Amino acid sequence: MNTINLRELTGGLLTAGLGAAFAIYAVAHYSVGTVTRMGPGMAPVVLGALLTLFGIVIAIGARWSPRRAGQIRVYVPAVILGCVVAFAALINPFGLMPAIFVSVVIATFAEGTVRPLVSIVLGLVLCLTAWAIFVVALQLPLTLFKWPL
To answer: What is the largest CA-CA distance in the chain?
Structure first.
């Protein structure tokens, strides 16, 4: 018998509720404007509505989602926090690209199985993506590489 996955249902409802709360707060406190002249409340309203929509989809999908035994991995938040700390520590002395690469490689250790080649390729792809978005498309004057030696 297929029962509702309570973990998925709870997560979906909490996500939908959080998105709805942000959207309602933004509508009540900021000017939304129009699509052609967006006000400061447009982005929070749209993002809150999307979050609400995604939460509803997750909650509806809980009916068909298989139940899985809960597994608590305490080291995952520590690894992710470590990757954020590494990025913050490396961005000033070494520049954007080394900070992104090292933080991505550290973040891949949060996964149960670590594949070094996949970590390196992912780090390189995200460095290239950050360069394309921030330097080429947005033309931000960022320091890509800086060697303190």
So the answer is: 64
Residue appearing with tokens 């960022």: 142
Q: Which helix (H) or strand (E) holds 14?
A: helix 6-29
What are the C-alpha distances in Å from 93 to residues 34, 76, 98, 124?
Answer: 43, 27, 10, 19
Sequential DSSP letters for 16-36:
HHHHHHHHHHHHHHS--B-SS
pTM (predicted TM-score):
0.60
What CA–CA distance (Å, rounded) separates 97 from 140? 14
CA–CA gap between residue 107 and residue 35 (Å, rounded):
37
**HEC-encoded secondary structure of 103-114:** HHHHHHHHCCCC
For the chain, 149 residues long, give each residue's pLDDT as a single digit of tens. 567 788 888 889 999 999 999 999 999 999 888 888 888 888 999 999 999 999 999 999 888 777 666 666 788 889 999 999 999 999 999 999 999 999 999 999 888 788 889 999 999 999 999 999 988 888 888 888 888 76
Residue type, 141: P
Residue 3's closest CA among 84, 65, 48, 70? 65
